[in-house]
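## retry 2 of 3
previous attempt timed out at serialization; input unchanged, resubmitting
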Amino acid sequence: MFAIAIHGGAGTLSGSKTSEAHAKAYLSGLSAALDAGFAVLERGGSSLDSAIAAVCVLEDDPLFNAGRGAVLTRDGLAELDASVMDGRTLGAGAVTGLKHVRNPIALARLVMDRSAHVMLVGEGAEEFARAQGVEMVSNEYFRTPVRQRQLHRVLGGTTEKENDLIAFGTVGAVALDARGNLAAATSTGGMTGKRWGRVGDSPIIGAGTYANTSCAVSATGHGEYFIRAAVAHDICAQVEYLKLPLAQATANVLGKMKALGGNGGVIAIDAGGEIALDFNSEGMFRGMRTSAGKNEVAI
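## retry succeeded, writing output
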């Protein structure tokens, strides 16, 4: 048994005339990411390689809030965060505040594999990236006209709800490989108009990303609440220690976060291949594919 699940952010498309076309484009992007991750599993690759392959596709797709197409800070820049975790070893790597690394998720993997650290930040993370031969790009590469218009609306106070693109855009993947190993990966551009070096849950192990031998989780949503509730770790802990079904654990933890005032969702997979795609927001861009024949994407 092997399987992968992905998300492309919590939120929905607006009711504009172009929503149907937007929906098709988003679903196509999700399918491409699923195919890339599943192909790794089909040829016997690891869950970690699978999750990272899927997230790289989403980082390269300008529709999603990660990599190219990331939302912009108040200063009009892209600042990118990502993290990965290997459930078999509890190895983890994270980066935050990147401005020039094309695929932040790939750098997070290198932090895990080639450094003595778990998280690297900003200029130091990019110095490490250059030393590792990682592809670097100008910050302009990440910026798209759509994200620039979105920032202008936010700064001008004309946007009441950011659901015409993605309310809380983050991308992620969780996977189970044929050897029974689990992994999770998450990448984001953060919040439109963010200031002061704000960091959300995506690069924080235990908040937006977590994996052990029982469970793997990637989250998307209002990051401050995911951090406070330690969402990703709490789900895995309930599966591991309380022996709860995955669906019940995700519902419990999202309910606790909702009580704090937070919205969003998670994708999760357990060691038996059960998958949960759960959210308390209006919607979530999501998909799953399994060796048992399931293959679906949805908004």
